[in-house]
Write a structure and sequence with these properties.
Layout (H helix, E strand, L loop, with lengths): L1 E6 L1 H20 L5 E5 L3 H10 L2 H4 L7 E5 L1 E3 L9 H8 L11 E2 L8 H17 L46 H4 L17 H6 L14 E4 L24 E5 L6 E5 L1 H4 L4 E6 L5 H8 L15 E7 H4 L3
Parallel strand pairs: 1-10, 2-3, 2-6, 3-5, 6-9, 9-10
Antiparallel strand pairs: 4-8, 7-8
Length: about 325
């Protein structure tokens, strides 16, 4: 069932932040981990920056949360248009997360299909292979999780630093607002466990014909009705077996990776966060039942909430 929540933009962000923290707290009271898939774009950035503030940082044991991405632009992780970089700078870099919490989509393969397969394999290991959970931040790529995880800024065993100074970016929060020196430096690709997904994909025991169940997937909606990187008429929209697919956007950067509809529709919670008058016409079309990508997200058993600014909500 589709639910609609509305408020002025700033109040909306506050409501979503509180609801997200409450969802994490409730889930962690009955299970060990909370798995979330993050969205890119300007609207979720405002949410992430709010979640980076001290009151929300201290409300949850974020070390028990596993962060994934619903889609990614096919650019390096330190690129200005990277969804991973945006989320890390706005929020995740402020959390002092241990190793094994961040699962960005790889974007360094010559063939995007290979990176899609690697990410699907990583998802299979994290969701269905609990005896040897992957460690995407391991430098040696062996997937070994230390008994007492070091901080993100720990030194490698060879004496080198785990992250490159060249990838350090300024924090979106002032030191006064964060209560700390600012966000941590952006992880380098090497620190994100290159090669892990290949080994998982080659493991036949991880090829179960089922889909992962995220505790929460955050989504937005473009003014063309796309969500994640599922665009109208793109072949990825019709994929029924694979979990992760390359996709083509009609605007730069064209090459993308995206979770597929079966994965989105298997989540416990799917929340759309949509603001802006330019979305009014498309939102009406989605709510009227047109088969646009955003309208095809209908979790079979999960919760579906559209968080809308009050102007948009009046149109539906």
């Amino acid at each position: 069932m589709r639910l609609v929540r509305s408020a002025p933009p700033e109040a909306l962000i506050e409501q979503v932040a509180h609801a997200l923290v409450q969802a994490v707290q409730q889930t962690l009271s009955r299970q060990e981990r909370f798995r979330i898939a993050l969205s890119g774009g300007s609207t979720p950035r405002a949410l992430y920056e709010r979640l980076a503030c001290p009151d929300f940082r201290e409300a949850v044991d974020w070390t028990r949360v596993r962060f994934f991405w619903g889609d990614e632009r096919y650019v390096p992780h330190d690129h200005p248009q990277s969804n991973f970089r945006m989320a890390f700078e706005a929020w995740l870099g402020h959390l002092s997360l241990p190793e094994g919490c961040l699962f960005p989509m790889p974007t360094d393969c010559a063939d995007p299909n290979e990176c899609a397969r690697q990410y699907e394999a990583t998802l299979r290991m994290e969701f269905f292979d609990f005896t040897s959970p992957p460690n995407p931040l391991s430098v040696n790529g062996e997937g070994e999780r230390p008994a007492s995880p070091p901080s993100l800024l720990a030194e490698r065993g060879d004496g080198g630093e785990r992250f490159s100074d060249a990838l350090t970016h300024p924090s979106p929060l002032s030191p006064e607002a964060s209560g700390e020196r600012g966000s941590q430096p952006l992880p380098s690709p090497a620190a994100l466990g290159e090669g892990l997904g290949v080994r998982a994909y080659e493991n036949p025991s991880l090829r179960a014909e089922k889909f992962p169940t995220f505790d929460l997937i955050l989504l937005g909606m473009g003014d063309d009705g796309h969500t994640a990187s599922l665009f109208p008429s793109d072949p990825a929209l019709n994929e029924g077996m694979r979990w992760v697919m390359p996709a083509t956007a009609p605007f730069e950067p064209h090459q993308r990776l995206t979770l597929t509809l079966p994965v989105l529709n298997n989540a416990h919670r799917v929340w759309f966060l949509v603001v802006g008058q330019n979305k009014q016409t498309m939102l009406q079309r989605v709510f009227n039942g047109e088969p646009l990508p955003a309208g095809l997200v209908q979790p079979a058993q999960g919760e579906l909430i559209w968080w809308l600014d009050e102007t948009l909500a009046q149109t539906v």
